[in-house]
Specification:
The chain is an all-alpha fold. Helix content is about 75%, strand content about 0%. α3 packs antiparallel against α4. It is elongated and about 60 Å long.
Amino acid sequence: MTIITIPRGHWFKPCLVALCALVLTSMTPRKAAAQELDEYGLLAGLITIVQGEMDDIVQEPDIHLPLGHLSSKLHDDFLAALEGHLEGDRAQEIAYLGRVDGVATALMGMTSPCDVCGELREDLQQVIDIAADLKLRAQAKKKDDDDRP
């Protein structure tokens, strides 16, 4: 059985993010809500990249960080937030975006002493920023929904 491996060069990350954003934008109607789906697509791409970077870092012989559990937690919380967004369940979306932010922040702290984690930390910061922005928008929508009679 042959296993195909994709070499990860400098082109891999931008191409993956662009592909995720393109796939999600091509499937959405062009409305104000499409911008949020674009950001969810970007967040999905970044989380995929972060997981790949964590897998690479864990394989380094001198690095001993327990990143596996948090990597899957980040992914699962993102999927739950996306599900809440798509179903209109603002409380679920807000809660899980907060968890995405928390897990990414924990990973930032865990990787702070790591010398080869610079790129991972930059990507985690982008995850934190996008998740926080999406959470603020969801909170504003929830407030608008609650204020309607």
